[in-house]
Amino acid sequence: MSNEILMPALSPTMEEGTLAKWLISEGDKISSGDLIAEIETDKATMEVESIFDGTVGKLFFNEGSEGIKVNTPIGIILDPGEKYDEKVHNPNLKSVSSNIKDKELIKEINDDKPLDQVIKLEEVVEQKSTISNSAVNINKTNRIFASPLAKRIANEKSIDLNFIKGSGPHGRIIKKDLENHDLNSTAKDLNNDLKKSVSDDSNYDLIKNSLMRQTIAKRLVESKTNAPHFYLSVDCNIDDLLTFRKKVNEEFPEQGKISVNDIIVKVAGLTLNKVPECNVSWTNENTKLFKSSDISVAVAIDGGLITPIVRNVEEKGIHKISNEIKELVEKAKNGTLSSDEYNGGTFSISNLGMYGIKNFTAIINPPQSAILAVGAGQKIPIVKDDNVVIC
After folding, report:
1. Helix, strand, coil % (nearest 5) of the chain?
2. Tens digits of pLDDT across the chain (391 residues)
3. Which among 18, 96, 220, 286 could disulfide-bond with 40, CB atoms 3.0 to 4.6 Å apart, if both were Cys?
């Protein structure tokens, strides 16, 4: 019995994915646990293992295919001695692939185009898809009734009248039927014209947005729209913090150096325990009050941003927190985070101090209810005991 390879849901928010790379080929013998593909999700690019034994019968999508819905068959594994039969194993493959290609065609050229051109293209592609999915040899067993003009046009354009449904009297094929039939050429010409208008404009280059960037943009817009943001800011004297960091690093060199950010994560976890009303997330029916402080730490990576999680911060020592953050950052940059290392979290910290940023307004990471934006430490003049001093 054959088994389908389905597009997996690699994160709770994943609705579709991109087939980044196949790690197998048709005809390969594989076992359960073998790596079969790299899938680009809304979070990262992850390797996927097979859960079946057998022979790879067919790979339904090429590398780089986008917009593949979760649970869509992307390949099939056959039992020993079994042969692949498209009609038996995947009769709907052609229409699924066609629809995805049509969507990619529209998506590829509709950015920054006049709305009327985009609508026209979508209508053309939709009509093309309808015709291709329902095409039958209409006149195969019947005599072809067509006007002389229609026959001449069909001959000039090499159109098979067997596939044309006439709209004239008694089903007679007329000129209009030939014009409506030539939708493929119309779509192709429109595609070329619109692409030409892009290539003729030398003021910018088009860079394709990764699935991660698209998801980040979507989630941040949803957050700003659905979660009322209000901002509180405070300047803190960090002399004691820096003294503590220096002392710890000098007394425990064998455990590695801790950073200012490590201390902030630890203090945030303890604070959330003291003020549990901040360690919550909102639903329409209830407010979730979390029992542990799971801190999401924003990490910039190639192509986007990801927030790996240090869990149960309130129970961990500063060196353990520091080592976990280093490991998570390394995994994030290598694209090897597991889903449980970045899904969840009850509170986020975004620190841009290392870039010299003094202050910024961070956007809440849904479904969390708060985020801490940390800026750079700097010496400034302040009033202390009625005297201006540098701190």
Report:
1. 40, 20, 40
2. 688 899 988 877 788 889 989 999 999 999 988 999 999 887 778 888 999 899 998 899 998 888 899 999 999 999 887 887 766 666 455 444 445 545 554 444 444 444 444 444 445 444 444 444 444 445 544 567 788 788 888 888 888 887 788 887 777 888 888 777 765 555 555 566 555 555 555 678 888 887 778 888 888 898 988 889 999 999 999 999 999 999 999 999 999 999 999 999 999 999 999 999 999 998 888 899 999 999 999 998 887 889 999 999 999 999 999 999 999 999 988 888 888 898 889 999 999 999 999 999 999 998 899 999 999 999 889 888 899 988 8
3. 18
Whether the link from the prior residue into 73 is cis, omega within 30° of 0, is: no
The two structure tokens encoding residue 36: 């079969």
Predicted TM-score of the model (pTM): 0.57
Question: Exposed, middle or buried by CB within 10 Å (0-12, 13-18, 19+), for 328?
Answer: buried
Strand, helix or coil for residue 311 = coil
Q: Count how many Cα atoms sit within 13 Å of the Cα of residue 140 in the half-sphere of its side chain.
A: 4
β partners of residue 306: 299
